[in-house]
Amino acid sequence: MKLETRNPKLETLEMQIAQVVPCTEAEGPGKRFAVWFQGCPLRCPGCCNPEFLPFKGGQTKTIDEMATWMERTRDEQGIEGITLLGGEPFAHARASVALAQAAKELGLSVMVFSGYMLEGLRAKPEPEVAELIHLTDMLVDGPYDRDNPDNERRWIGSTNQRIHFLTERYRFDEQWRKKNTLEIRVIGREISVNGFPAKDAVGLWKGWARKKPLPVSPPVPNHDSRGADAK
Ligand code: SF4
Fold first, then answer.
1. Which of 191, 185, 187, 216 is nearest to 18 (CA)?
2. Which CATH architecture has domain 14-178?
């Protein structure tokens, strides 16, 4: 995909990715291309993705690879947007901006989950942080609080976290009031889980020995891959 990004330097930008779920309904409205960055400076007790906290690890991808994958998924599976989550997207702000710009060029919406509060992000001096806020349609902000899980707002981890509709593209409607969504994928002998489980399903998959990120590459034909909606 040839990007028309405003900053040509972003076209060759590399990023450290922990996991991609190219078509999910468990990370925001509609079908979405979800990207987990590798690395988060925060340490919320009970973080669902402790393996994504170190800044070392994951896989290095270029924006061109990611944009091409997003475009193909849009055309083949009808995704309506991308979701960036943690690791912390604002700790990878330049990469997040590049992905968000590519998404907008493809007509896709942008949702971001951040452990930082919007006010704190707006106070940061880095221009790429302001640029990412500018490109974001929906921001869910605030650290995850395991003592106060949110069972009323779909896709939201804990009750302290806020949803900011930063553009006119989305609003709080009935789909946000449905029960939490958990997706379980089986690829060969490996299991991957994403989304937020209902309260009585927390830990359901923990006994399964193999929980690991999905491959950070487009799916290979004939893989046994399926998602299970455990609402
Ligand atoms: S911000 Fe997200 S990824 Fe980072 S520690 Fe908190 S819950 Fe985990």
1. 216
2. Alpha-Beta Barrel (3.20)
Q: What's the CA gap between 185 and 29, in Å, rounded?
A: 19
Which protein residues touch ligand 1 with a CB less than 6 Å away?
A: 40, 42-44, 47, 49, 86-88, 115, 143-144
Residue 46 corresponds to which tokens in the numbers above? 């009970």
Q: Name the token pair of 108.
A: 């896709």
Q: Where are the domains of the chain?
A: 14-178
pLDDT tens figures, 37-74: 999 999 999 898 899 999 999 999 999 999 999 999 99
CA–centroid distance, 179 to ligand 1, in Å, is 22
Which stretches of the chain score pLDDT less than 50?
A: 6, 201-202, 205-210, 222-231
Q: Which atom of ligand 1 is nearest to the CA of 86?
A: 3
Q: Quick one: which of 163, 199, 160 has its CA closest to 182? A: 199
